[in-house]
Specification:
The chain is α/β, with parallel strands linked by helices. Helices cover 38% and strands 16% of the residues. The chain has helices at residues 15-22, 43-51, 65-75, 87-99, 113-120, 140-146, 169-182, 199-202, 239-248, 256-265, 269-291, 317-325, 352-363, and strands spanning 30-31, 82-85, 103-108, 124-129, 153-157, 185-189, 214-219, 232-236, 296-298, 305-310, 329-330, 332-333, 344-348. Helix 7 (169-182) links the parallel strand 5 and strand 6 (185-189). The longest helix is centred in the last third of the chain and has 23 residues, at 269-291. The structure holds pyridoxal-5'-phosphate. Pyridoxal-5'-phosphate is lined by residues 35, 87-89, 111, 157, 161, 189, 191, 219, 221, 227, 232.
Length: 364
């Protein structure tokens, strides 16, 4: 087994790199770092996709009408409000390119793709820091006081990766009111929202009807366990943005199989219920177990993953990564996130027996 350099950092999808360095076959690794639903894809999707494989013999519908109708039914919103894309990643850059902000404000620590996309579109990112002493929750009034006409875009990840904190809808309204007054667009990434206790109450999608400066992004990679499918969607109500984006985007942003898959997965009620039941109970169980340990401080998780601060000064995030990967469990060393350090790790909730194995290792 190779020795890891502590300057190496791995992302949830870096299994091939791990395979090379540690000599562990990637199929044997339990990924606690990819934040993907441990149940795998829905059985309805597995069966249906195989039956519809001939879909690839035709070009997909350029308007993705049936798919957008299914997504509209899933979200209880008008299909005209929906734009589909190649994962939420493509939509992040598509909308950032459209808004073309000179200055964007991002709540940090957060997912790195926002800063990268703002930079690629020629703008500058500024961070509004969330603080460990406040459990990384947002002080809405303070954020609103710091917003100004100098920003063209505010980016919020809700719930946020890696802190697993949620901005409730009332606070979101307050932020949207302020941004609307100042002429700031708001991009809300809801990649993890379906894992929250009450998605109906926490999602900002209903707010798109009231705020034409709001764009909500979602994907199927995490909750529906389909990161290889590359299916994401945006919900917004501003007709000018919708028509411009539809005009400038590549006509077939998603392939025919993703088009079919999307029409199958959103209606698998049994799968959605099982997923929510598993994540909610494991989240509760693991949070309380880590709360009673003095080696870690867990931050109250609202998504399917939890951020931990390492309280034991004799170990750091790279040591824990190394310890876990040798047992074929991959966690996220959070030292590369802005505002975090080598005192932080993140892991997602997997099946109970796998979670037990990780917990025993971290807490023993
Ligand atoms: C907050 C957040 N948004 C978006 C993505 C990427 O999602 P997709 O696979 O839909 O492009 C990730 C992946 O880790 C993420 O953590």
């Amino acid at each position: 087994m190779g020795q890891i350099q502590h300057r190496d950092h791995f992302h949830g999808s870096d299994l091939e790199k791990i395979e090379q360095i540690y000599g562990i076959r990637k199929e044997e690794i339990i990924s606690f770092s990819a934040n993907v639903n441990p149940l795998g894809i829905s059985s309805k999707l597995r069966q249906g996709l195989a039956e519809h494989v001939d879909a690839i013999t035709s070009y997909p519908d350029r308007e993705y009408t049936s798919l957008r109708r299914c997504i509209g039914q899933y979200l209880t919103c008008d299909m005209e409000q929906i734009v589909v894309g190649n994962g939420s990643t493509e939509l992040i850059s598509l909308f950032i390119d459209f808004i073309h902000p000179k200055r964007a404000l991002i709540l940090g620590p957060t997912y790195s793709e926002y800063e990268r996309s703002v930079g690629l579109s020629g703008g500058n990112s500024h961070y509004y820091p969330l603080h460990a002493k406040e459990g990384f929750t947002l002080h809405t009034e303070d954020l609103c006081a710091k917003l100004s006409e100098d920003y063209q875009l505010l980016i919020l990840c809700n719930p946020n990766n890696p802190t697993s904190t949620l901005i409730p809808r009332q606070q979101m309204r307050r932020i949207l009111d302020t941004c609307k007054m100042l002429g700031i667009y708001v991009l809300v990434d809801e990649t993890y929202i379906e894992f929250t206790r009450d998605v109906g109450a926490s999602s900002s999608i209903p707010l798109t009807r009231d705020y034409n400066n709001l764009i909500v992004l979602r994907g199927t990679s995490k909750f529906f366990a389909a990161p290889g499918l590359r299916l994401g969607y945006a919900v917004l109500s501003n007709p000018d943005i919708i028509s411009t984006v539809r005009r400038v985007k590549n006509p077939w942003m998603i392939n025919a199989l993703a088009d079919v898959a999307g029409q199958l997965m959103f209606t698998d009620e049994d799968y959605k219920t099982k997923t929510r039941r598993l994540i909610l109970s494991e989240r509760e169980r693991l949070y309380h177990l880590f709360l009673s340990s003095d080696r870690f401080k867990p931050y109250d998780p609202q998504a399917n993953f939890m951020l931990l601060r390492i309280e034991d000064p004799s170990i750091n995030a790279a040591d824990l990564f190394d310890l876990c990967i040798r047992q074929k469990m991959m966690i996220r060393d959070c030292s590369t996130f802005p505002f975090l350090s080598d005192r932080y790790i993140r892991f997602c909730f997997m099946k109970p027996e796998d979670n037990d194995r990780l917990m025993n290792l971290l807490l023993s």
